[in-house]
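Comment thread on ticket #2218

A.B. wrote:
> Attaching the input chain for the structure job we discussed in standup.
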Amino acid sequence: MNNVSLIGRLTADPELRHTQSGIATTRFSIAVDRTYVKQGEERQADFINITAWRQTAEFICRYFSKGSRVGITGSIRTGSYTDRDGNKRYSFDVVADNVYFADSKNSSGSSGNYSNNSYSDNNYQQSSYRPSAPQPAATYSNGDADDFADMPDDEDLPF
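C.D. wrote:
> Ran it. Output below, let me know if you need it in another format.
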C-alpha cells in the first residue's frame, strides 16, 4: 500500500502552472519536523517535494503561502532519468490527494474565505468546481434506511 500523511510548512509560495493540455498543476516543498531531537541540538527537518494536480493545485495556490502549515495525504511517486552529463538520476515526489489546513483559521494569515478545512480532487466533479467557493467534502454517502434489510433475530450470523 502506498499511502503518505505529512504535516509541514511550505518553504515558498506555490505557483500554479498549466500543462499544454490545460491541466492545472503545482509543485512545491514542505519542511516536516523530525520527531527525534538530540539533546543540545536544534530540531531537524526534512524537505519533501509535493506535486498536486487539477483543483487540488488550484486550491493550494489560492489558500496557502510560504510558511503556511499544511496537512497532506497522498502517495509516493518515484522515477528516474538521465541528466545532461549521462548520469542516472532518481526522483521522489509525493502526489497530493487530499490537502488540509493545519493552522487555525486565525493564525494562518490567509485572507481567503473558506468554510472547510480540507480539499480533495475526488470530492468534486470538474464541471461543478467553482474556484471562488470550495464546497465541503462529503463525509458519508447518500443513503437511507431502505438500503438495509431486516435480519431475523435467530442469533445466526449470515457469514
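A.B. wrote:
> Thanks. Noting for the ticket: The chain has one domain: 4-137.
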